[in-house]
Amino acid sequence: MIRVLIVEDVELTRSALAALLRQVADIQVVAEVSTGPVIVPMAEVMTPDVVIINNDLTISELGPLVARLRATMPECAVLVLTDPRKSFTARTSRRTDPPSYLIKDVSAEILVDTVRRLAAGERVIDHRIAIASLARSGPVLTNRELEVLGLAADGASVVEIASRLYLSLGTVRNYLSKVIGKTGARNRIDAIRIAREAGWLA
User: Can you give the pTM of this predicted structure?
Assistant: First the structure.
Protein backbone atom coordinates (compact mmCIF):
# COMPACT_ATOMS: atom_id res chain seq x y z
CA MET A 1 0.00 0.00 0.00
CA ILE A 2 1.38 3.42 -1.04
CA ARG A 3 0.85 6.03 1.68
CA VAL A 4 0.15 9.55 0.38
CA LEU A 5 -0.03 12.92 2.13
CA ILE A 6 -1.78 15.73 0.21
CA VAL A 7 -0.83 19.40 0.66
CA GLU A 8 -3.34 21.88 -0.80
CA ASP A 9 -4.78 25.14 0.55
CA VAL A 10 -8.10 24.99 -1.31
CA GLU A 11 -10.34 22.58 0.59
CA LEU A 12 -12.50 21.65 -2.39
CA THR A 13 -9.48 20.84 -4.54
CA ARG A 14 -7.81 18.97 -1.69
CA SER A 15 -10.92 16.86 -1.09
CA ALA A 16 -11.32 16.10 -4.79
CA LEU A 17 -7.70 15.00 -5.11
CA ALA A 18 -8.01 12.81 -2.02
CA ALA A 19 -11.26 11.28 -3.29
CA LEU A 20 -9.63 10.46 -6.61
CA LEU A 21 -6.68 8.70 -5.01
CA ARG A 22 -8.85 6.83 -2.51
CA GLN A 23 -10.46 5.03 -5.42
CA VAL A 24 -7.14 3.35 -6.22
CA ALA A 25 -6.69 0.00 -4.52
CA ASP A 26 -2.98 0.28 -3.80
CA ILE A 27 -2.98 3.93 -2.62
CA GLN A 28 -3.92 5.13 0.88
CA VAL A 29 -4.37 8.84 1.58
CA VAL A 30 -3.07 9.11 5.15
CA ALA A 31 -3.57 12.88 5.60
CA GLU A 32 -4.73 16.09 3.91
CA VAL A 33 -3.27 19.42 5.05
CA SER A 34 -2.95 23.05 4.04
CA THR A 35 0.46 24.65 3.58
CA GLY A 36 2.22 25.85 6.71
CA PRO A 37 4.27 24.58 9.63
CA VAL A 38 2.05 21.54 10.13
CA ILE A 39 3.29 19.77 6.98
CA VAL A 40 6.56 18.31 8.26
CA PRO A 41 5.24 17.30 11.72
CA MET A 42 2.25 15.64 10.04
CA ALA A 43 4.57 13.80 7.66
CA GLU A 44 6.66 12.58 10.59
CA VAL A 45 3.57 11.15 12.27
CA MET A 46 1.86 9.69 9.19
CA THR A 47 5.06 8.46 7.43
CA PRO A 48 3.86 8.85 3.82
CA ASP A 49 5.70 7.30 0.90
CA VAL A 50 4.73 10.24 -1.31
CA VAL A 51 3.86 13.86 -0.46
CA ILE A 52 1.81 15.62 -3.15
CA ILE A 53 2.04 19.42 -3.06
CA ASN A 54 -0.65 21.06 -5.19
CA ASN A 55 0.06 24.69 -4.46
CA ASP A 56 1.42 27.92 -5.89
CA LEU A 57 4.48 28.05 -3.68
CA THR A 58 7.37 30.33 -4.55
CA ILE A 59 10.88 28.92 -4.76
CA SER A 60 11.69 30.55 -1.41
CA GLU A 61 8.88 28.50 0.13
CA LEU A 62 9.18 25.28 -1.84
CA GLY A 63 12.95 24.82 -1.43
CA PRO A 64 13.01 24.91 2.39
CA LEU A 65 9.90 22.72 2.59
CA VAL A 66 11.42 20.02 0.37
CA ALA A 67 14.68 20.27 2.34
CA ARG A 68 12.86 19.74 5.65
CA LEU A 69 10.91 16.79 4.30
CA ARG A 70 14.11 15.23 2.92
CA ALA A 71 15.93 15.74 6.22
CA THR A 72 13.06 14.23 8.19
CA MET A 73 12.21 11.37 5.81
CA PRO A 74 14.92 10.72 3.19
CA GLU A 75 12.93 7.91 1.58
CA CYS A 76 9.77 9.98 1.11
CA ALA A 77 9.17 11.20 -2.45
CA VAL A 78 7.84 14.70 -3.10
CA LEU A 79 5.57 15.46 -6.07
CA VAL A 80 4.77 19.07 -6.97
CA LEU A 81 1.76 19.82 -9.18
CA THR A 82 2.60 23.12 -10.83
CA ASP A 83 2.26 25.53 -13.72
CA PRO A 84 5.14 25.35 -16.24
CA ARG A 85 4.90 29.09 -16.87
CA LYS A 86 6.31 29.83 -13.43
CA SER A 87 9.94 30.93 -13.59
CA PHE A 88 11.02 28.81 -10.62
CA THR A 89 9.66 25.55 -12.00
CA ALA A 90 11.91 22.50 -11.64
CA ARG A 91 14.46 24.36 -9.52
CA THR A 92 15.17 24.03 -5.83
CA SER A 93 18.25 24.37 -3.66
CA ARG A 94 21.32 22.65 -5.05
CA ARG A 95 21.84 21.17 -1.59
CA THR A 96 18.51 19.35 -1.78
CA ASP A 97 17.46 16.43 -3.97
CA PRO A 98 14.87 17.99 -6.26
CA PRO A 99 11.23 16.89 -6.13
CA SER A 100 9.24 15.47 -9.02
CA TYR A 101 6.95 17.70 -11.08
CA LEU A 102 3.69 17.28 -12.98
CA ILE A 103 1.44 19.80 -14.72
CA LYS A 104 -1.60 20.75 -12.62
CA ASP A 105 -4.08 19.59 -15.26
CA VAL A 106 -2.55 16.14 -15.62
CA SER A 107 -4.96 13.23 -16.12
CA ALA A 108 -5.95 10.97 -13.24
CA GLU A 109 -4.25 8.02 -14.93
CA ILE A 110 -0.91 9.82 -15.22
CA LEU A 111 -1.13 11.06 -11.62
CA VAL A 112 -1.75 7.57 -10.27
CA ASP A 113 1.03 6.10 -12.43
CA THR A 114 3.41 8.80 -11.24
CA VAL A 115 2.62 8.14 -7.58
CA ARG A 116 3.44 4.47 -8.15
CA ARG A 117 6.69 5.32 -9.94
CA LEU A 118 7.76 7.66 -7.13
CA ALA A 119 6.98 5.04 -4.51
CA ALA A 120 9.23 2.68 -6.49
CA GLY A 121 12.12 5.16 -6.27
CA GLU A 122 11.90 7.00 -9.60
CA ARG A 123 11.98 10.76 -10.14
CA VAL A 124 9.51 12.18 -12.66
CA ILE A 125 9.42 15.52 -14.46
CA ASP A 126 6.63 16.25 -16.93
CA HIS A 127 8.37 16.97 -20.23
CA ARG A 128 6.40 20.23 -20.64
CA ILE A 129 7.84 21.51 -17.36
CA ALA A 130 11.36 20.44 -18.26
CA ILE A 131 11.17 22.10 -21.66
CA ALA A 132 9.68 25.33 -20.28
CA SER A 133 12.31 25.54 -17.55
CA LEU A 134 15.24 24.76 -19.82
CA ALA A 135 14.08 27.08 -22.60
CA ARG A 136 13.85 30.00 -20.16
CA SER A 137 17.25 29.46 -18.63
CA GLY A 138 19.08 28.79 -21.89
CA PRO A 139 21.34 25.79 -22.45
CA VAL A 140 22.58 24.26 -19.21
CA LEU A 141 24.68 21.82 -21.21
CA THR A 142 28.31 22.44 -22.04
CA ASN A 143 29.41 22.77 -25.65
CA ARG A 144 30.92 19.29 -25.52
CA GLU A 145 27.72 17.80 -24.07
CA LEU A 146 25.71 19.46 -26.85
CA GLU A 147 28.20 18.15 -29.40
CA VAL A 148 27.89 14.59 -28.10
CA LEU A 149 24.11 14.84 -27.91
CA GLY A 150 23.95 16.29 -31.42
CA LEU A 151 25.87 13.33 -32.84
CA ALA A 152 23.63 10.95 -30.91
CA ALA A 153 20.61 12.76 -32.35
CA ASP A 154 22.05 12.17 -35.84
CA GLY A 155 22.06 8.45 -35.11
CA ALA A 156 25.73 7.97 -34.19
CA SER A 157 26.51 5.16 -31.78
CA VAL A 158 28.68 5.58 -28.69
CA VAL A 159 31.57 4.00 -30.61
CA GLU A 160 31.11 6.37 -33.56
CA ILE A 161 30.87 9.43 -31.31
CA ALA A 162 34.02 8.40 -29.46
CA SER A 163 35.88 7.96 -32.73
CA ARG A 164 34.76 11.25 -34.25
CA LEU A 165 35.50 13.30 -31.12
CA TYR A 166 38.64 11.39 -30.10
CA LEU A 167 37.13 10.40 -26.76
CA SER A 168 37.01 7.14 -24.85
CA LEU A 169 33.79 5.12 -24.79
CA GLY A 170 33.49 5.74 -21.06
CA THR A 171 33.81 9.50 -21.53
CA VAL A 172 31.05 9.53 -24.16
CA ARG A 173 28.78 7.51 -21.88
CA ASN A 174 29.52 9.93 -19.03
CA TYR A 175 28.59 12.90 -21.21
CA LEU A 176 25.32 11.26 -22.23
CA SER A 177 24.56 10.36 -18.62
CA LYS A 178 25.15 13.98 -17.55
CA VAL A 179 22.87 15.22 -20.32
CA ILE A 180 20.09 12.89 -19.21
CA GLY A 181 20.48 14.06 -15.62
CA LYS A 182 20.57 17.78 -16.47
CA THR A 183 17.50 17.63 -18.70
CA GLY A 184 15.52 15.36 -16.38
CA ALA A 185 15.04 12.94 -19.27
CA ARG A 186 14.19 9.26 -18.92
CA ASN A 187 16.82 8.17 -21.44
CA ARG A 188 18.95 9.37 -24.36
CA ILE A 189 16.04 9.55 -26.81
CA ASP A 190 14.03 11.60 -24.34
CA ALA A 191 17.00 13.95 -23.78
CA ILE A 192 17.31 14.50 -27.54
CA ARG A 193 13.61 15.35 -27.78
CA ILE A 194 13.78 17.77 -24.83
CA ALA A 195 16.88 19.49 -26.25
CA ARG A 196 15.24 19.87 -29.66
CA GLU A 197 12.02 21.28 -28.22
CA ALA A 198 14.08 23.72 -26.11
CA GLY A 199 15.78 24.88 -29.32
CA TRP A 200 19.26 23.57 -28.44
CA LEU A 201 19.46 21.08 -31.33
CA ALA A 202 18.35 21.42 -34.91
Answer: 0.64
